[in-house]
Amino acid sequence: MICTYDLRGVLPFVSPRIREVLKKIENFDNVCEIRIGKNMPLSLSLVRGAVFVSENGKFLNSPCGAFIADGRDIEKTLELMTNGSVYAVADEIKNGFITLDGGYRVGICGSAVLNGGKVSYIKDISFLNIRIKREVFGCADKLAEYITDGGGIKSTLIIGGPHSGKTTVIRDLARILSDRFLYRVAVADERGEIAASVNGTAKNNVGALTCVMNMCPKRDALNMLVRSLAPEVIIVDEIGSDADFFAVKNAVMSGVSVVAAKHGASFSDAEKFLKIFGCAALLSRENVGQIQKIIQTGDKYA
User: Strand 31-37 to strand 43-46: parallel, antiparallel, or no bridges (unpaired)?
Assistant: First the structure.
């Protein structure tokens, strides 16, 4: 497997003060998130655990001595992330995140403004969580062979906890099914993390036979892809709601295979969803993107 981390690509999007701190970090391995809070210590989420960061780029196990971000850092970072116009991405912000050029997703926290009981905007933004994208080429090799054994593609649910590499695996699987097995692949990329499309062009390698429905609610995306794109397999990230369940079920009943990722620590955490998938894969808690176990959904998995 070839693993690529791209922390450097984030640097143009953060404030100059934070950029200088990050440039001093010597080892970027296993960095999953950069967490920037107003008047809070700068911190990083790792594959296992978290650390604070000092002004000279050293990792700390406590906030004492850590670099403190302020309101100006938040404002400047948002300005850089939105090309100087926060309001231009207001529709994304009200969903609690924005997606940057290159496929980085940024979670946003602040004060929600409600209209008719629904969030219409988030103001007084005070916290940003930048997720670092990674591509692990070959991490889905074993899974691809398993779900295509016997011809066709078995609908498959990929289960894993935070930072286990769910998006990484389904991204690699899209590329493998497209380029190696020559299947027509469609990606329902609601948060723009799988393909990292910018102006209609995927920045991540998801395969030459893959089409992408970007920034569209999963339920609507699956329905449109089934009706209009004639895919042999649809790949979708982070399912969990009842609406997701029925959208996936309808796609499968229409004769399209679905590969989906779901949050969970065990197969039993996804028991309801396993009913509509032919098999399931559980990701390792220790190594990002590593398949721990694959089962037929009729198997005993408790």
Answer: antiparallel
Which residue's structure tokens are 């899974």?
143
119-134 core/surface letters (b: 16 or more CB in 10 A; e: else): eebbeebbebbbbbbb
For 159, the token pair is: 């289960």
pLDDT in tens, the chain (302 residues): 555 556 678 899 999 999 999 999 987 777 889 999 999 999 999 877 899 999 999 999 999 999 999 999 999 999 999 988 887 788 788 888 888 877 788 999 999 999 888 888 899 999 999 988 777 889 999 999 999 988 889 999 999 988 888 999 999 999 999 999 999 999 999 988 899 887 788 888 999 999 999 989 999 999 999 999 999 999 999 999 999 999 999 999 999 999 999 999 999 999 899 989 999 999 988 777 889 999 988 665 54
Domains and CATH numbers, the chain: 2-131 (3.30.450), 135-296 (3.40.50.300)
Angle (CA) 232 235 240, round 5°: 130
